[in-house]
Amino acid sequence: MTNLEGKRVVVRVPATSANLGPGFDTLGIALAYYDHLEVTAAKPGTLAIEVEGEGKGQVPMDATHLVVRAILETFKRAGHEAPGLVLKAVNRIPHSAGMGSSGAAVVSGIMAAKGLLDGVATISDKTMLDIATEFENHPDNVAPALFGGLSIAWEDEQGPHTKKLSVHRGVSPLVLVSANKMSTALARSLQPESVPHGDAVFNVSRSALLVAAMVQSPELLFAATEDRLHQSYRATAMPETDVLIKTLRAGGHAAVVSGAGPSVLVLASDPAQRLKAKELAEKTHPQWQALLLAVDNKGATMEI
Prior knowledge:
Layout: E1 8-18, E2 27-42, E3 47-53, H1 66-78, E4 84-91, H2 101-116, H3 125-136, H4 142-147, E5 150-156, E6 159-165, E7 172-177, H5 184-189, H6 197-215, H7 221-224, H8 231-234, H9 239-250, E8 255-257, E9 264-268, H10 271-284, E10 289-292, E11 301-303
Parallel strand pairs: 3-4
Antiparallel strand pairs: 1-2, 1-11, 2-4, 2-5, 5-6, 7-9, 7-10, 8-9
């Protein structure tokens, strides 16, 4: 085993919002709101974990910790034995809120392993996406967390793929975070096995339009964020989310469920419209936390 003892890596990973309304399991954006991770290689058998912020006192503090699992899997994929690990995580991304917290944890671990293996083994972008997707089961959150920007993700017999696009500078995201939590597994279980043909065609058209709106024509975001594929089926499990989205959309704002929810994402076409959406949300749902965020175009970063 290569002696990595004392090597230290610092990682920053953005929050993400997936689906963006019609782009179920396909579209996602990276948001300028970050988890930070510091990993130091130690003597074999060492495992020390420190967590601050989100998840403190709740996440596992042993080898089942998601970041640790991702590090170990990446070392395994590279054909090298992992060293002992000393982790310090400072988490800002809310857990079970639809902002990609588990995807960020996985990506943090993969990036940390890549840094520790620098000069020893090469971890390609495709390998990172493969590993992250195996953990998350779908690439729509992990792709933007890894690479930033607007991500179009798909899978075939070669595994997951992604195309990164730069978002129009007018697009101004607002995330409204609920104090409630939502299990991704529960959210997915509420969807039917099949949907009417008309609804499928509706979502295909809106997804195509959404890419154009995000990249070129933000004025089309309201129409482009309409959805008939998943949000209505999940509404019963997130009644406050459903009410807030309907209130915002009645006011002309492009509001959607962020990921599996219960947070709400508003894709405003400019900062002034975003401020109006924030004011309306605070008036009707004052207990929700409003985050005015930029789109992160870098994705996960790592320093050795």
